[in-house]
Amino acid sequence: MFGWKDISDTSVLDQMRQNGRYCKSGMAMQREKYPNQAMCTLTEYVVEAYGTREGLEVKPDQKSLKDGLRRKIPEPYECDPTDSNKFCWLFFNKTEYHVDHQWTPEKTIATECKCSLGQRLDHNGVPKKKDGGGLEGEGYCGNILGTSKYIQGLALVKPVLEGSKCHTLDRYNW
Model confidence over 114-125: pLDDT tens digits? Predict the structure, then answer.
């Protein structure tokens, strides 16, 4: 457990990333019983479902979210960027960690689906089509905070930022 810092005018997702800087997963959540405290958590899985914007946050459409649970998005977390009401939902655990307790994803946070710069091509150079329409690689979840892919990326960047005598630490826009 460690302190949680509220950052005004930022989304909950950004606050989870900022407060999670010292977690191996890069993701922390505010404890419910002790709002001044944070704990590390990680994303168990990602689904695509509808939601409604309310200021900086997004409220899930519960039926769509339940349907989405049957179709979890595998890595690299492809999604449909053409529908602004569809979001990627990161499912993470909110319970205290105990060695003998199995974690169950219980809470969600939304992130937008972002357009890709290119589609996947077949051996003839033609964009591959997805089942159900659209093109493969046309969009990806805009944030994969706390996923295994994100954790792998943090593990690669951290030694450069902390231990390299060559790095100036002035480049946070990698």
Answer: 988 776 777 787
Angle at 150 between CA 82 and CA 28, to 5 degrees: 100
Q: Residue 81 sits in which domain range?
A: 43-149
Burial of 100 (0-12, 13-18, 19+ CB in 10 A): exposed
* Domain count across the chain: 1
HSE (side-chain half, CA atoms, 13 Å) at 47: 21
User: Any bridge partners for residue 113, and if so which?
Assistant: 141
pTM: 0.75
In a domain, 35, yes or no: no
Cα–Cα distance measured from residue 47 to residue 87, given in angstroms and rounded to the nearest whole number: 8
* Rounded CA separation 44/9 (Å): 27
Rounded Cα distance between 158 and 17, Å, is 15
